[in-house]
Amino acid sequence: MKYVTFNRVKIQNFLSVGEIPVEVEFNKGLNIITGNNKDKVDRRNGVGKSTIADAINFAIYGSTLRDLKKDHVINNINLRDCVVTLEMSLNHDGSTTEYKITRSLAPSKCYLFENGVDKTRDSIVNTTEYIQGLLNTTQEVFQNCVVMTINNATPFMAKKKLDKRKFIEGIFNLQIFSNMLAMARSKYNEVMKELDIECARYEEISNSIDNYNSQKQIAMNEESRSRKKLNDRRKANLNEIKQLKDKRTSVTQEELVKYTENILKIDTTVPEITKKIQNIISAKSTLKATIDLKNERVNKIGTTDETCPVCLSTLDDSHREHIEEEKAKLLAEIKETNITKDKIEAKLKSANDLQSTLSDKRGQLSQKLNRGKLQLQEMQNIEEKIKHLTSLNDDIRDDLLSLDKKDNNFDKIIKSTEDRLVEVQQVIDKIKEEIAKLDIIKFIVSEEGVKSYIVKKILQLFNAKLALYLKKMDSNCICIFNEYFEEEIINEKGKPCSYFNFSGAERKNIDLACLFAFMDIRRLQGDVAFNFSIYDELFDSSLDERGVELV
Question: Do residues 50 and 108 touch, judged by C-beta distance below 8 A?
Fold first, then answer.
C-alpha cells in the first residue's frame, strides 16, 4: 500500500495569489485555514482559501477544481510567472521517497523531482501521467475523496449517470474494466471492419467464381457447337466421298489408247477403200460406156434395109449372115461385159459396205473414246474432290483433337478461386470466433458483467457505510444503491423520492455522507492513502450549528 504525505505547497501568481508567494505547511490534526481580505478589511471571504485546494489539484493534474481556462488561472494583475510547487512523500513497502512537483503557466512547464533527481518526462502530458501513476488516483476520485469542494464541484448525487459511473469506477478501482471494455469495443470495431472487408472479399470471389462458371459454360457451349459443326461437316464430307466413289467407272487409260489405235487403223484403211471405190466406179463407168457402145452397134447392125447403111452397097445373104454373126458376137461381148460390170458393182457394194461399216465403227469408237475421256476426266475430278474432302476431314480430325486437348484454364482458375474462397471463409470463421469471444469479453467487462459482480460484493458494505454516515448526520432519509449505482432514496415517511426533492441542507447531508462513505471505501481498497483531507467551504450557510457539529 502507498502512503502519500503532502508536506507543503507554495503558490505564486496563481488565481488570487499575487507576486508574493503563499506557502502552506500541513501539520497533523485539524488545520483550519482562514485569512483577512486586504482589499476589504471587514470581510473574510475572497482571501484565497479555496486557491490552496485549487493549487494542489493544479500541481498534480494540471487543472483547477473550478472549470477555468488556463488564461484565467494566471493572476489577473501580474499575468505571468504562475508557479505552484507541491512537496510530498510517498511511502511504499517501508521505503520513503521525496517528490517535488513544480508546475507553471506563462511559460507552461511541469517538473518532477524524485529525491532531488529530475524525473521530468519529455512532455507535460507524459509528466502528468507519470505523477498520476505515482498517486494511482484519478482526478475525479481525488476531488471527491481528498480535496472536497462542496460548492465548486458537482456533488455525486447531482452528477449524470455516466459521470457517476466513472467516479464509482475510480473509487472501486474498476477503471481497468472500462479500459478493457474500451479496448474490447475498439478491437470489436476493428474486427467487424475486418469482417466487412473479408465478407466483401468473399462476395467478390464468389461473384468471380460465378462469372468464371458462366464463362466456362459459354466456352463449353461454344466448344460443343464447334464440335457438332465439325462432326457434321466431317459426316457430310464422308457421305459426299461415298457418293463420289459410287459415281466412279471402270474406264482405264489403256482402253482409251486401244480406242485411239482402232480409230487410227480405220482412218488409215478408209482412204484405201475410198480409192478402191473410186477405181471401181471408174471401171464401172468404162464398162458401162463399152456396153452402151456395143448396144448401139448392135442396134445399128440389126437394120432391115436393102443397102448397107455404111457402104450403101446392096446387102446379100452372105452379108446378112455376117451381120448376124457380128451381132451375136457383140451381144456375147455385151453379156460378158455386163457380167464383169455386175462383179464390179458387187465389189463396189462390198467396198461401200465396208466403208460404211468402218465409218460406223469409227463413230462408235469415237463416242467411246470421247465418253471414256469424259469419264476419265470425271474420274480424275472425283479423285481430286475425294482427295480434297479427305484432306478436309483430316483437318477436321486435327481440329477435333485440338478441341479435346484444348485447355481453357477455367477449371484451374475456378479451382484456384475456390481455394481462395475457402481461405477467406476460414478467415471469416476465425473472425466470427474472435467476434464471439469479444462479445463475451465485452459482456464480462461491461456494467452488467464483472463490474456488476464486484460492485455487488462491496455494495452491502458501501450501503452500510452510507447508512451509518446518514445516521450520524441526523439525516431524515436513507439511500440505497444497486449494482448499477442507481440510487433509491426513501424519506422519513417511507416514501421514495428524488434527491432534488430535499432542501439544500438535506442534500448537503446526503452529499457529505456519500463523501465520507467513498473515503472509507477508498481507504479499504488498500492501494493508496493520503495524510489529509481538505474540506473547502464545508461549513457554509446550508448547515446549521448542529449540522456543523455533526460534521
Answer: no
Question: Which secondary-structure segment (H or E) carries 356?
Answer: helix 317-405
CA dist., res. 75 & res. 138, Å (int): 27
- What are the residues facing 25 on neighbouring strands? 8
Mean of pLDDT values over 285-301 = 83
Q: Which of 40, 39, 41 is nearest to 18 (CA)?
A: 39
Higher per-residue confidence, 525 vs 366: 366
187, β-bridge pairs: none
C-alpha cell belonging to residue 351: 467396198
Question: In this structure, are residues 521 and 458 in contact, taking their beta carbons and an 8 Å threshold?
Answer: yes
Q: pLDDT for 451-465, tens place per residue?
A: 777 777 788 888 899
512: amino acid identity, one letter: L
Say what the pTM is: 0.53
The C-alpha R_g of the chain, in whole angstroms, comes to: 73
Name the least confident of 152-156, 158-162, 272-276, 415-419: 152-156
Closest residue by Cα to residue 168 from 134, 144, 136: 144
Name the pairing type of β-strands 147-149 and 534-536. Answer: parallel
Kindly tell me the burial class for residue 51, based on how many C-beta atoms sit within 10 Å of its own C-beta (0-12, 13-18, 19 or more).
buried
Return the bridge partners of 85, or none.
10, 102
184-234: per-residue pLDDT in tens?
899 999 999 999 999 999 999 999 999 989 988 898 888 889 989 989 999
119 φ, ψ to 5°?
A: -115, 20
Strands 22-25 and 95-105, sheet pairing = unpaired
Task: Supply 395's cell numbers.
Answer: 483437318
Q: Which amino acid is at 418?
A: E
Contact 149, 537 (CB under 8 A): yes
Predicted confidence at residue 239, as pLDDT, reads 93
